[in-house]
Amino acid sequence: MTITGAVSRASLAEAKDRLEAVITSADLAGLGGDLFAVLHLIDREHGLRRAVSDPARDGADKAQLVQILLEGKVSPAALGLVADVVRLRWSKPSELADAVETLAVTAEAARAEADGRIDDLEDELFRFGRVVEGEVALRSALAGPGLPDDRKLGLVNALLEGKVTPATLTLVTELVLRPRGRSLEGGLAEYGKLVAQRRQRLVALVRTPVELSAQQRTRLAAVLAAAYGHEVHLNIEIDPSTIGGLSIEIGDEIIDGTIAGRLDDVRRRLGAG
């Protein structure tokens, strides 16, 4: 779900602004689900996707096509937002679909935020991603071709329903049933980053050989926030292989203060010599 075209990036920024305007009055319990339903339609109907992303076609015509297809099937808020999205210009048809997915995830994050549970949403997506990485049988069941969708849905509900935020259940279900070419853990990581962006926070993956105390977490978050100029959300992973110290990953940057990291550096230097 990486939008690379300059035209599409500008359009996505406009679409996000429109979403923010809609969020203030929309029924957030259904907005994300409606946007995901539109995404499913666009992904399934390739001709429609080309038609609503065609730069040579008048924006008003594309919006009218969306109105005809979706009126009465999704909420007025979702319909208006999608009409605005198709009026914009997109570098590739796939990037329009990616933008709709981004808006759907962001709407779910806004839903959790309105409930005062956006921190829970971030943590639950991260923790479930780690469970999936560590449990081969579970990952195979949820992401492999062996189970039909209804069985996968039943498994997700058995694992999560009533135990996580409604937004978490929606997002995990979406990724399990419609991965859009991603691994399940990769999709969870992407969605987690979008949730963090809702609060304009950076996400730091902290690997440590032992659990950090609440005071240590608070101090580390404050140090990173001062260094990066943004609030930083910590995802803590206990990793005995780090031996000592901390390994911190923020975006593409890795800060490795572990003994294992320093030993690896020494080995590289010796090998280079």
Automatic annotation (TrEMBL):
InterPro entries: ATPase_OSCP/dsu. Belongs to the ATPase delta chain family. It is found in: Cell membrane; Membrane. GO terms for molecular function: proton-transporting ATP synthase activity, rotational mechanism. This is ATP synthase subunit delta. Its main location: membrane. This protein is part of the stalk that links CF(0) to CF(1). It either transmits conformational changes from CF(0) to CF(1) or is implicated in proton conduction. F(1)F(0) ATP synthase produces ATP from ADP in the presence of a proton or sodium gradient. F-type ATPases consist of two structural domains, F(1) containing the extramembraneous catalytic core and F(0) containing the membrane proton channel, linked together by a central stalk and a peripheral stalk. During catalysis, ATP synthesis in the catalytic domain of F(1) is coupled via a rotary mechanism of the central stalk subunits to proton translocation. It is a peripheral membrane protein. It holds the Pfam family OSCP. One of its GO terms (cellular component) is proton-transporting ATP synthase complex. Keywords: ATP synthesis, Cell membrane, CF(1), Hydrogen ion transport, Ion transport, Membrane, Transport. The keyword Transport applies.
